[in-house]
Every structure is written in structure tokens, then in C-alpha cells.
């Protein structure tokens, strides 16, 4: 009887000791402890930290992330500036074309009121441009020089004639507010094919 009580007391003390050990281990890692009733205990292996020597590279730091963000913002800013410059260039080209069209329309209107060849044919000459430089388009430079001592504007009519002397096309160009001695070089561009050959001449030129 005493032997049985002593055995039970010993098992109780061992159980308490196992619980104490489990409590200590639980502070450092997750474990599983138990008493199978015969005094033996079981525990699961404690997880170990990964071997960082097998990793490559470094995790991104806060500073690195901020630097990448700033680079992305800079690239976006440059792209926006390039786009803006492109829009501005297109607007400028459209503005130049509008000015040319206004000068042409004004020259045509002015010359409708002129009898004869006008008062400024001596201030105007023509220079043909090679077809190789104009993508096979017939074009002439109209050279205008203000030979007076006052600011003046010019309206010029250029006629294109065929081999028989027949006028087959007429183009108008103009130059606005030229100072004394100032020159202008608008283009007279034919819409006719490069062949057959045509002859261009200053049909009218009016200074006003």
C-alpha cells in the first residue's frame, strides 16, 4: 500500500516537473508536451530561423523606395515637358500656315483693284527651286525688297504659262509691313505636276 502511494506521488512530481519545463520552453518557442501516463514525455522540434546565407540581394530600404519614386516622378515630368513642346511646335506650324494664307488672301484682294501690272514689279524677282529639294513639287521663291524709304506691304501675282504662252495657273503671295530696305521671300507653290515644263513670271506687283 505504501509502495503504491509512493509510486503515485512520484508520478505526480514528474508531471509537475514536465509542466514547469513546458512553461519555460513556451517562452522561447512553440512546443507540445504531454504525459502518456507512464512517465514519458513527447515534444515537437523547435523551429529554427532560416539560413540567410542562402538568400541573394538585399531588401529595399525606405530610402531606396523613395529614390525610385523620385526617379519615376522625374521621368513623368520630362515626358510631360516633351509632350508640351511637341504641342507647341505643332501650334507654331499651324500659326505660320495661317499667316501665309492671310497674306495670300490679302494679296489677291488688293490685286483685283489694280489695273495693269501694278507699281512694284521692279521690287520683285523670282528664283526657281530644284525639284529635288521640294519633293518634286514646282515651287518658286518670290524675292521682295522694299526699295522705298517708308514701311510698305506688297501683293504679288505669279502666273504659270505653258509652252504656247497660255496661263494655266495663277498664285498670289504677299508681304506685310516691310521696313525700308527690308526683304521678304514667300513661296509661290504650283499645284500642277512637274511635267510638262511651265514658265513663271511676275504678272502683277503692288506696293501699298
TrEMBL record:
Can you tell which superkingdom this protein's organism belongs to?
A: Bacteria
Extract the ranges annotated as region (Disordered).
Answer: 35-80, 185-208
Keywords of the record: Signal
Biased composition of type Low complexity is found at: 39-53
The residues forming the signal peptide are 1-34
Q: Read off the NCBIfam families from this record.
A: FxLYD_dom
What name does the UniProt record give this protein? Answer: FxLYD domain-containing protein
User: Organism source for this protein?
Assistant: Streptomyces lancefieldiae
Amino acid at each position: 500500500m505504501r509502495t503504491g502511494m509512493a509510486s503515485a506521488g512520484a508520478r505526480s512530481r514528474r508531471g509537475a516537473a514536465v509542466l514547469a519545463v513546458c512553461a519555460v520552453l513556451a517562452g522561447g518557442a512553440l512546443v507540445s508536451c504531454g504525459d502518456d501516463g507512464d512517465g514519458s514525455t513527447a515534444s515537437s522540434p523547435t523551429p529554427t530561423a532560416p539560413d540567410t546565407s542562402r538568400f541573394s540581394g538585399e531588401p529595399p530600404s525606405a530610402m531606396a523606395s523613395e529614390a525610385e519614386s523620385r526617379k519615376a516622378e522625374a521621368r513623368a515630368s520630362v515626358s510631360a515637358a516633351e509632350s508640351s513642346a511637341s504641342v507647341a511646335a505643332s501650334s507654331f506650324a499651324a500659326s505660320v500656315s495661317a499667316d501665309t494664307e492671310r497674306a495670300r488672301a490679302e494679296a489677291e484682294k488688293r490685286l483685283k483693284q489694280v489695273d495693269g501690272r501694278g507699281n512694284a514689279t521692279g521690287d520683285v524677282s523670282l528664283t526657281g527651286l530644284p525639284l529635288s529639294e521640294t519633293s518634286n513639287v514646282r515651287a518658286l521663291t518670290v524675292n521682295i525688297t522694299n526699295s522705298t524709304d517708308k514701311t510698305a506691304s506688297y501683293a504679288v501675282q505669279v502666273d504659270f504659262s505653258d509652252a504656247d504662252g497660255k496661263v494655266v495657273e495663277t498664285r498670289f503671295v504677299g508681304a506685310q509691313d516691310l521696313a525700308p530696305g527690308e526683304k521678304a521671300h514667300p513661296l509661290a507653290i504650283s499645284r500642277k505636276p512637274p511635267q510638262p515644263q511651265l514658265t513663271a513670271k511676275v504678272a502683277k506687283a503692288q506696293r501699298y
